[in-house]
Amino acid sequence: MKLTTAGESHGKELVGIIEGLPANLPIDIGAIDGLLALRQSGYGRGGRQKIESDRIEILSGVRNRLTLGSPLAFRIANRDYDNWKPYMAPEGADTSAKKLTKVRPGHADLAGVLKYDQTDARNILERASARETAVRVAAGGIAMCYLGELGVRVSGCVRSVCGIRDDAEHSFEELAAARAQPLFMLDSAAQARAMELIDELRAGGDTAGGTVEVRVKGLKSGFGSCMQYSSKLDAALCAALMSIQAIKGVEVGMGFGVADRRGSAVHDEIYIRDGRIVRSTNNAGGIEGGMSNGEEIVLRAAMKPIPTLMRGLNTIDLATGGPATAAAERSDVAAICACEIIAESVVAFAVAQAVADRLGGDNIREVKERYSRLP
């Protein structure tokens, strides 16, 4: 299973192509649109979300809501393109009108300009923008349709915003309630403090990051491999999360906490109860030796503060070679809710890829039969 994406932040549209889906997989377009709406929600978002109202339009690979086994192509329109057509049109545009030379710290601007031999950072930021993640949310929604046929579910919540944390234990079933909260946090007191902080940051022209947690329930053991480093499930999941534009760190299970504890307090002991293999803890986060072990997969990702600050940061102007204040493109104060939905989506797609690699199958009936035979 493979996803290819294309499109610029202020271009005509975003496009995705998924190869490797089995035939006769039901596609829930309403659920996918629901994920896209959640990606645009959350306390601390900026003006772009008031313009866009993302919807998936499937172009090929599906007939009467069922996949055909051929590549599934889809698009998400950029409504803001109408305002940007004079400056972004492939047929001809005034590129000087929206030229950006005051490169922004924390963005791809400077490194991209140097790599791709550009003089206008807009030619970099348009693709590097987190707007691209709308495609991956849609693809993740399609992957969730695939996983759902096998009884595998993906969910999550926000664990912290700019240092304000929710450290409580939450069951998988409780996670669904997070989506009804302004910051997707289950600790209401922590969420209230985080919202107050976001208001302070907005007033000061500053931004916030945070951490999100994603969990996968119902995946049987043996997905991924210990035989080749490139086939390890945790490596694939971490790579998927790190591919999100603002992610700077990923943990599996106890994560960095394992470094501070002795082995007897880390490794999940194994028992037989009522004829079943069980573990009383899940510090490994559902993955051992690069393979799923049947427990819940637990992942956390750290999102850096949004690098576009309305008050600007010190930088250089490529046009003059002198010091400058970084450009203030339209941006958010906090986008942690979007990050959580994006994280769920890329994890779902990576898990779906691992399942497809192991099970194959030209149609969903074959996939379900093969999955049912696994221990």
SSE topology sketch:
Blueprint: E1 2-6, E2 13-19, H1 29-39, H2 48-51, E3 57-60, E4 62-63, E5 66-67, E6 72-77, H3 81-88, H4 109-115, H5 122-128, H6 133-148, E7 153-161, E8 164-165, H7 172-175, H8 188-203, E9 210-217, H9 233-242, E10 247-252, E11 270-273, E12 276-279, E13 287-288, E14 291-292, E15 297-303, E16 314-316, E17 323-325, H10 336-359, H11 364-372
Antiparallel strand pairs: 1-2, 2-6, 3-6, 4-5, 7-8, 7-9, 9-15, 10-15, 11-12, 13-14, 16-17
Helix pairs in contact: 1-6, 1-10, 6-10, 9-10
Describe it.
- With 375 residues, this protein is an alpha+beta fold.
- Helix content is 31%, strand content 20%.
- It is built from eleven helices and 17 strands.
- The strands form six sheets. It has a five-stranded antiparallel beta sheet with strand order 8-7-9-15-10.
- 41% of the residues are buried.
- The mean pLDDT is 95.
State the strand order across the main sheet. Answer: 8-7-9-15-10
Supply the helix-strand structural class: alpha+beta
What's the overall geometry? Answer: globular
- Rg, Cα atoms, Å: 22 Å
Low-pLDDT runs = none
- How large a portion of the residues is in β-strands, by DSSP E? 15-25%
- Rounded mean pLDDT is 95
Question: Tally of extended strands?
Answer: 17
Distance between the termini: 23 Å
Helix count, DSSP H or I runs of 4 or more residues = 11
Describe the sheet with the most strands.
5 strands, antiparallel
Q: Into which percent range does the helicity of residues fall?
A: 25-40%
Task: Note the run of SSEs as H and E.
Answer: EEHHEEEEHHHHEEHHEHEEEEEEEEHH
